[in-house]
Design brief:
The protein has 485 residues and is mostly helical. The protein contains 18 helices and no strands.
């Protein structure tokens, strides 16, 4: 008598899930790469398409505006109409927009295509995390999967610097966009085969008023932040846009409190871990975005590194992050839960930022750069997994896309705001030192030191908030034992 052999089918299913995770992470990596790969090409784009110094910023800002504005809506649409369907739609938008960017022959064409790229990137990012939560329900496997996702998100930016330098130096700036085409096509084909065809929610009513008000509020807020340094933080334009964003946010909250099927159920923010994880995300992203941007400037403008050397300088952080995210972080979470590893990882990252705050003019890589890189890679690799689990574990499956959109919006807004604030601090200190008669390199270094110290404070505050997380029973369950209700 032949007995059924469920082991074979379960192994096959498990393999399929990990392959699906690889496909999702490849799609997300394409989005993450785009945030830094373009920065390397900006000088070439400026010369070729005759951008001015002020209009060149819109190559970045057009993407940031739509990306930040549509994260929340993209996540909710995934809950309503199916996560895989929205992932594929976002992937198509991003890939087609990448082709348009690569073929751009005018400033206006490139800026519009970058805006569409940001919209596609927002949808892909918002629903990818939900698809991972759908695929992996066991605590141990979910922790490992989130570790892989965290590594891709945290380390992809540095890879973008390397790849951007290689493409621009060997080919031309068009290829920083065209390289997305084969990746997008491959991810789309593999997604059709490997990703589960999840259904949307039982009701497909979209809260139009809530969607319009929160999207407009986010776009206005992002616009004010990215233009704050240029226009002035106390200028009528900046204050007016921030006030408009606040009014729209208040309108959104009023709509959500009264509408029958809200875009964002306000009770979601009563989930302690989700609320704390979002605050941590804002602070941590502010510190990390500013570190990545300002440390790259320090290496180039003070130490004289070229684009490829800057990318290689970030490689130790990526390697350490990989080792932590792909194995160590999951084991730590399963052994000690999410609270301790999150706070501990952010504390280690804060020490790394404090080391960068030395920023000497005649710095040497092994003494003045490498130690901070290693500690930041270690801290980020340990902490990224717990913060995502804290945000997602307490949320019902029907709201996972929304929660993903919320946490990604927190990271994005925190990163934009933190970068703007810390860059302003660096510029102000740099100007003061120049007026006092300091040499250019010394003034730059002094500005970066102030910014890195402020980033250290952000990371320390995020670590302290992490201690307030509620331990989650699924996060601390043994990998060999089911969680006890």
């Amino acid at each position: 008598m032949n007995l059924p052999t469920p082991t074979d089918s379960s192994v096959s299913a498990r393999d399929g899930r990990w392959l699906a995770l690889a496909v999702l992470c490849l799609g997300v990596l394409m989005i993450v790469l785009d945030t830094t790969i373009v920065n390397v090409a900006l000088p070439s784009i400026r010369a070729d398409l005759e951008f001015s110094e002020s209009t060149l910023a819109w190559v970045v800002n057009a993407y940031v505006l739509t990306y930040g504005g549509f994260l929340l809506l993209g996540g909710r649409l995934g809950d309503l109409f199916g996560h895989r369907r929205l992932f594929l739609l976002g992937l198509v938008l991003f890939t087609v927009a990448s082709l348009a960017c690569g073929l751009a022959g005018s400033r206006e064409w490139l800026v519009v295509a970058r805006g569409i790229q940001g919209l596609g990137g927002a949808v892909v990012t918002a629903v990818a995390l939900s698809l991972i939560m759908d695929l992996f329900t066991e605590p141990a496997e979910r922790a490992k999967a989130m570790g892989v996702y965290g590594f891709v998100c945290a380390g992809g930016g540095s890879v973008g610097v390397l790849l951007g330098g290689l493409l621009v130096s060997t080919l031309n700036w068009h290829w920083v966009f065209l390289v997305n085409l084969p990746i997008g096509l491959a991810v789309f084909a593999l997604s059709l085969r490997l990703l589960p065809a999840t259904r949307g929610g039982s009701g497909r009513h979209l809260d139009v008023g809530g969607a319009l008000s929160i999207t407009a509020a986010l776009i206005l807020a992002v616009y004010a932040i990215v233009g704050g340094n240029e226009a002035g933080w106390l200028s009528a334009r900046t204050l007016g846009m921030l006030a408009g964003a606040a009014v729209l946010l208040a309108l959104f909250l009023a709509i959500e409190a009264r509408v029958r099927v809200p875009l964002v159920p306000l009770k979601l923010f009563r989930l302690r871990n989700l609320a704390i994880a979002n605050l941590v995300g804002v602070l941590w992203a502010g510190a990390m975005f500013a570190w990545f941007f300002l440390s790259a400037l320090y290496l180039q403008r003070v130490l004289g590194y070229g684009p490829m050397q800057v990318g290689l300088a970030f490689l130790p952080a990526n390697l350490v992050m990989a080792g932590c995210s792909l194995g160590l972080s999951a084991r730590i979470v399963m052994r000690w839960g999410i609270r301790g590893p999150l706070a501990g990882g952010l504390l280690v990252a804060a020490i790394g930022l404090a080391l960068f705050a030395r920023a000497p003019v005649d710095g040497h890589f092994a003494v003045d750069v490498l130690p901070g890189m290693v500690l930041l890679g270690l801290g980020a690799g340990i902490a990224f997994n717990p913060v995502l689990l804290a945000a997602m574990n307490d949320v019902e499956p029907r709201d996972s896309g929304l929660a993903s959109g919320v946490v990604n919006t927190a990271f994005m807004m925190g990163g934009a705001l933190g970068l703007a604030i810390l860059a302003s601090l660096a510029a102000a200190r740099n100007g003061a030192l120049l007026e006092a008669g300091a040499a250019s390199a010394a003034a730059l270094s002094g500005g970066y030191r102030v910014a890195f110290l402020a980033g250290t404070g952000f990371a320390l505050l995020a670590a302290a908030l992490g201690l307030l997380l509620r331990p989650h029973r699924n996060a601390t369950a043994s990998p060999m034992e089911p969680a006890v209700p």
